[in-house]
Fold each of these.
Amino acid sequence: MDPEVVAGEKKKTLGSSAQIAYCLLGPTASGKSHLALELAARLPIEIVSIDSAQVYRGMDVGTAKPSRAERERVPHHLIDVLDPDERYSAAQFHADALVAVEDILSRKKIPLLVGGTMLYYRTLVTGLDALPAADPAVRAEIDEEAARRGWPALHAELALIDPQAAARIAPNDPQRIQRALEVFRISGRSISSLQTAAAPALPFELKAYAILPADRSMLHQRIEERFDRILKSGLIEELKSLRQRYALSPELPSMRCVGYRQAWAFLEGECGEAEMRKRAIAATRQLAKRQMTWLRSFKEVEPLVDPAAADLEARMR
């Protein structure tokens, strides 16, 4: 179903007296967190993170997590939810985000969902009810094929089945490639087609906006500068500490996060520091490209006009 139709149906269900939550999306390094904190200095905002990496405790430097002082000044939700040796799903985010938003609304505050994990945002808007449950046998079959052929080959297979999903999923993202292929093999339908099914209306109205950088070269420069700050702030030391404290492996979702994946390879002696930096920056640029692809597919998300802070503040008042 067209997202605009879904949104229209939700508005009918919610009515004119509906409570409102806001969402701020954008590619990595586009300034979302800075903008959210700037707004929170002027409005009674509490932030709900839409970030699949910031849910992990101890992964502070590599995720550019808000500082403790910033989190004391402005309440943040869905940060430090679980340990990095655990797994977190989009379905769990959906449940946790609903609880967080309704809690904020109950205290007469403004919920502002902020982040760049587009799958989490889409899950919140469309739900996951239409997707089949995981099948261990099918997953084992896909894992066996990946061991023989490699994940890039399975990504190429996915591109034939579901070009839309393949455009959003990186060739070296085994978790999402596996899920997309699993859904197709179980249901005979692409994951993209199933994810467009209408979901139950949210118990609040959600207005979504996005920072859409017009200058790609400027965004690439910000990505490079951001990763250099992360390195200088102690990414390698942080990962060393995490590996000592937890039973981690490179296959865990937490360690597949951009930056940590490349730092892991460096610690394993697979590349030098300069190569690690080069790989991480390239991977972050690819992530930003996929995020922009997602954003262009969200017809209900409105782009912000510079200066973005003034534009969004006016819309929220």
Note: Residues 1-17 have pLDDT under 50 and may be disordered.
Amino acid sequence: MAAAAAGKHLVIEKPVATSLDQLRRMCRAVRAAGVRTVVSFVLRWNPLVRTLKALVADGALGRPYYVEADYLSYNGRWWSGWNDARTLAQGVSAALVGGCHAVDALRWFAAAGEFEAADAVEVFAFSGGLRKGGHVEYNPATHQWTESDAPMEYDGLEVLLVRFADGALGKVCVNAECVMPYRFPIRIFGDRGSAFDNRIWSHQFPGQTDWVEIPSILPDSSDVTHHPFQAEIDHFVACLQSGVESHCNLEDAAVTHEIVFAALECYRQQRPIRLPLESA
């Protein structure tokens, strides 16, 4: 907010805020200052994600009616941000810490436009798992179990069901306690085709007898050096040079974050939550 008031354009990491109030105050500050923003939902620039989005925009899968994106990662001390992210005060939830990438992908693939993300109107979610408060930790890099004095303070498993404005449905599984290497599975179902990660079945290939496999870089690494940060920054510089808003600006990212905050509200109220959320 201080940077916006100073007239600075902003690259903002995710999560942009840890509460709905913070999120709304940031959006108001950016609107008042008239600065431009991009939020680091960096997987929008992942090569496979870009290819799948182009196929959706080109009609290769028809109209999307159901999409899935999962964030599967055993977060722990192997990650330098763990000591802060594991807490309720600073991490808040598994979905906010990292699963918001999958929530954003869900919105991205549910919309047919090339640079469009879908608006959610309803969220229903469950949380669970076995790891919350535990003192035994798995390291997926070494495949070893160790004692830990840094327990996760929130549920490690969340399943979010989302209804979008055009009637399409989506599902996100955030699993921060799965004993396996990091994965980011993607499923897109349209009325003319389907995508399973980098495998495509489409009406545009009427003679296909097996899945068409796209050779590409998949978003299946928790190593951030694998992520296309340079492409994100190049995009933002181009937006500034041409005087246009990013498709991943703060206003758009706020919709993704509201889905995560709606899930938290669903846990409290034990009922589906309508969007947009009402401020406290």
Note: The CA atoms of residues 76 and 118 lie 32 Å apart.
Amino acid sequence: MLTGGMNMRQLQRFLLPSVTFFFCFIFALPALAQEKLPEIVKKIEPATVVILTYDKDGKIIGQGSGFFISKNGDVITNRHVLAGAHRAEVKTINGKVYPIMLIVAEDKEADIIRASVNLPVESVYPLSVSSSIPEVGERVAIIGSPLGLERTVSDGIVSAVREIPAFGKIYQITAPISSGSSGSPVVNMKGEVIGVATFQFVEGQNLNFAIPGERIAKLKTEK
């Protein structure tokens, strides 16, 4: 029995449009996120760089990814991307190459590094970094250079936020990464960096991991 002056027929008239709107809204969410993805890519692509490393003889020994974090040309990448290199360069979106001058901060445990690059300020498009913890299921995108395929875009979701003893949080994501993706920015649908693509479990499927943005924010500048 219904009270408050509303009978069953009136309740049905009220509920049916509400339920229909709810399900339409839920099914529309992935489509809305997908429509927004090209805008996000256009926003973050100019900030991404390819990192090239060389031995003492000038022979290229590795390639990775990175992104600008400040207007003065500082770049974030994984520490292992630069490990063992005699010198390194970054290639920007316009195809120009500039030398990495020095390391200004590093977090060995988190495998991230901040490097200073000598280039014109008009060539720098820094990204903002979010220290907020993403929600499980939140959509993310990555732009990197897996296997040398420059500026490859992949997307997925945050599949888990894991707590590693004596280390802290790490983000498990479904956005595919491969060798060469190390150092790529992992961004949310606001275009904010929430992490750095770092490694994957090749034995599994879509078991990819990113170092949280808060570790970038905590980097202490040193020369």
Note: The two ends are 75 Å apart (CA to CA).
